[in-house]
Write a structure and sequence with these properties.
By secondary structure, the protein is mostly beta strands. Helices cover about 15% and strands about 55% of the residues. The chain has one domain: Lipocalin, CATH 2.40.128.20. Strand 8 and strand 9 form a beta hairpin. It is globular, with a radius of gyration of 23 Å.
């Protein structure tokens, strides 16, 4: 009996020692994560948005501050004035190596909805296109598909364009903006 207890204790100690010796393996950043660093900085933004076919365009100006969270995520905090209202937003963008897609989220001070993105960078390496599904602004209670494209015109200039998929299956542009690097 005593030998069985000693043998059992020895096996338990060896198992615990082996488990402790194995360090968790964390992923390494990939070139897609490196690509995200282009967003890092402080930006001035101006945009023009159209709420619907019969509505006048709304203009807004603001700022965007983007930073890396570790080597995997870019976090962007935006603040803009639109129609006399201050709108604040937080966007995350990363790259999911398993899905082989860029992923992210968007929350803002105007909606109680969290947008969840998936997308890709085009073959030129200059345009990141993210797609999401969310509230349809033209049909209350319904959802629609949305697409945001970020085109790097230069290291200091990004053109951001937002689209919504229409009932006819065509993408309709509802917002176009420019971000210019301050720092």
């Amino acid at each position: 009996m005593k030998r069985s207890l000693i043998a059992l204790a020895t096996v338990a100690l060896l198992t615990v020692s082996t488990l402790r010796a194995q360090e968790p393996k964390f992923p390494e950043p990939e070139k897609q994560h490196e690509w995200l660093k282009q967003f890092v900085g402080e930006w001035e933004s101006e945009a023009e948005a159209k709420g619907g076919p019969d509505q006048p365009a709304m203009k807004c100006k603001g700022t965007v501050k983007s930073r890396m969270l570790g080597a995997f995520w870019v976090i962007s905090e935006s603040k803009a004035e639109m129609m006399g209202t201050t709108v604040e937003a937080i966007q995350t963008i990363g790259y999911d190596s398993t899905k082989k897609k860029y992923v992210g989220s968007w929350v803002d001070s105007m909606l109680n909805y969290m947008w969840k993105y998936e997308g890709t960078v085009d073959e030129t390496g200059k345009i990141l296109t993210l797609e999401a599904e969310g509230p349809n602004f033209l049909a209350e209670g319904k959802t629609a598909k949305f697409r945001d494209a970020y085109e790097f015109k230069s290291k200091d200039h990004i053109v951001a364009t937002s689209f919504m998929l229409g009932d006819d299956g065509k993408w309709v542009t509802f917002m176009t903006g420019n971000m210019r690097r301050k720092k």
